[in-house]
Amino acid sequence: MAQTPPATWQEHWFEHNQLLSRKFYDNDVAVYYDNAVSNSVTWPNTFLGDVWRYTKSVYGNFGNDPHLFAIFHTNKYSGGHPSTYFDASHDNRNVIDVGPGPWTSGTGGDLDITTHEVAHIVEGASKGIHGSPAFPIWGDSKWAEIFIYDVYLKLGKTGEATRWYNQMQNSTDNFPVAGTHWFRDWFYPIYNNYGGTQVLNRFFTYLAQYFPKSGNNYSRDMNWGEFIHFWSGAAGVSLKPLATAAFGWTSTFETQFNQARNDFPFTYGTGVVNVYKHCNYGGYVTALGVGNYTLGQLQNLGVLNDDISSVKVNSGYQIQLYWDDNFTGTTLTLTADNSCLVANGWNDKATSVRITTAGAAARAATIAETATDKQLLIYPNPVLEELRFNTTLPLSGATIRVLDVTGREVLQSRYTTNTINVSKLGAGVYTLMVINKDKSFIRRFVKQ
Questions:
Q1: How far is 75 from 40, CA to CA, in rounded Å?
Q2: Which of 4, 15, 294, 407 is the most buried (most CB within 10 A)?
Q3: pTM here?
Q4: Structural domains of the chain, ranges and CATH numbers in brackets
C-alpha cells in the first residue's frame, strides 16, 4: 500500500515558500494547492492520476513512492518546474509545481503545462538513471511536445490531441537553425513511422543501457551525432536522412554521428547481414536486409565509403561487395561470416553492396554476363524508361526476359524492335536475357 502523502507541505525551494494543503490523493497522485487556488478546481485529481498511471505503464516506476505530487498556485510563480525522486530539493519526490493559474478551465493550456512538467520527470529520471543528456539538444519543450501528444492520444482526449497536433504543425524554433520544425519534421515522423509510444520509450531504454553513467547519474550530455544515433537505435533505422531534412547536416554532425556509432555499436533494427567498421566485428555495425545498396544508400545508413572490414552473414544469404558504386568494379561474394577482410584483400574497399538469398545467388551465377561479348550492346545504362539494343544480329522473334536480383522474372516479351520499355520496373539492378534459338546473351542494367 502506498504511503499516505502528508496533509500539508511547506515549500522550501527557489523563491517558493507557501504552506500547501493536500486536496486529493489516491495510490498514484497527490494534489496540493496554496491558499489562493479555488477548491472548485478538481480536474487535476482525475487527469493527472490518469497521466501518471499511463506514464508509469510506459516508462516504468519512478522510485519507491508511486505518487506524483502535483502542486498548484494561483496569482504567483508564473510557469512551472519539475523535480524527481533523485532530488533532495523537493524531498525526493516526483513533483510538478505550476502557477499562476487560475486552473478553472481544465482544458487546453491547463492540461498542456501540467503534462509538460511530467515530461520533464520522464526525461530526468526514467529507467532508474538521473539526468537528461539530451536536454541541451532539445531544450525545454521539444521532447515534451511529442510526449504531450502521445498522452492526449492514449488517454482518449482526441480533441486535445488534434488541437495540440495542429498547434505544433506551425511551431518553429531557431535551433539548431532558424525555422526548424521540431515536432513536424523530427518527432512526429519518428513517432508516426517507427512505433508510436514504444519508440519514445526505447530512446530512454537505449540511453540507460549504453550512455555513460557515474553511479545512478548520467555523467555527461549528448552531442548532436549521439542524439541522432540513439534515436536511430530506438527507431530501428538510420535517421540520418530525417535529421538532414529536419536540421540540416553539418560536417560536425557527420563527425559526431560516425564517432557515436563507434562508441555505442548497437544496430538499427535487424537484418540478414551485419557489416562492421573494424576486423573481428568491432566498431560500428549496420544491419542490412535483402536488397541493393548504392554508396548513397549506405551512407544514409551510416556506412562510410571504403570502410567495411568484417561481416556476419546469416545462413542462406550472401553479400556481394563491389569496389565501385552502382554495383560495378571488382566484386567479392561471401556466404558466411568473415572476421577480417584483410586476408581477402578487401579491407576498406567496398563502395556498394548487394544482398540476396544464397539460392538466388547461385541462379545468378549461372547466367553471369561475359564482358568480352560485344555482339549485343545495351544503352543507356542506367536507364529510366526505354532500354535500347545495338546489334547487327538477326534477333527478330527472340525471347526477352528481365530478372530481378533474386532471379525472379519481372518482364518478358518478344524482340520486335531495338527497344524495350522498362519504365514500370522499380529502381534497382536487373539481368536482361535475350534468347534466340541456340544463342543467348546476358546483360546487366540499372533501372533508375
A1: 16
A2: 294
A3: 0.76
A4: 8-244 (1.10.390.10), 273-366 (2.60.20.10), 377-447 (2.60.40.3080)
